[in-house]
User: Fold this.
Amino acid sequence: MKNPSVIVITGASSGLGEGLAEAYAAPGRTLLLTGRNQARLQGVVSACEAKGARVIPALVDVADRDAMDRMLTDFDRENPIDLLIANAGVGYGTGRYLMERPEHTHELSMINMIGVSNTVMPIINRMAARGKGQIALMASVAGFAAITQSPSYAATKAYVKHWGEGLYGRLKPFGVTVTTICPGFVKSAMTDANRFSMPFLMDRDRATDIMVRGMADGRARVSFPWPVTWVAGVLGALPSFIATRLNPLHTKPKLPPID
Assistant:
């Protein structure tokens, strides 16, 4: 969508969500920004208001289906949404131990998968009834293949990628555009937690510009940078007996303490 007037961005209190909020902030635009950290979210709200946007903050957990449904439905009744960006997500990087803690795996599933669904589902029928609108889902290049270094994270992003690209064809006849965004490594607190080499690590402003231009063009998939996309795509397309041998293994992790 070239010039959306009413925009919703989840996970807007930091990282890519913060970058997108500031990129879209302008006079004549209404932004509904959600997050879980009140202080950080208020900082983003203030920055966007300084650019002339009307900003409505919402301290909400995307994993709370009822809260998300109420908030989005009530907001859409008063301010029909042009662009909905399901951005909220978490990642724990590759730590020193074999796997993340069980509660981390649970949170990855609840935020990265269920949270995306909770964001999109209340608005799908409403946009379709209007015959216009755009939905963007934040997946990852990690969703192209089974990533040894972060298997739980990669699995959640594979879900978002496939669901978003399936929704593209499902909603296109109703005039609703769906864009699935698949970034590579972007400098943020999330990538700061990684303990492995991150090729083509990109700064947030450059990544944000790529995403905004891709959404404006109505592309079904916005994936970058191309070298990482190409390698991950080939890896995901190969037969498993080849892909598992090519998937790089880094330093052997430690086993956690066993009771």
User: Anything to note?
Assistant: The first strand starts at residue 6 and ends at 9. The CA atoms of residues 211 and 222 lie 7 Å apart. The beta strands are 6-9, 30-35, 54-59, 83-86, 134-138, 177-183, 221-224. The longest helix spans residues 102-130.
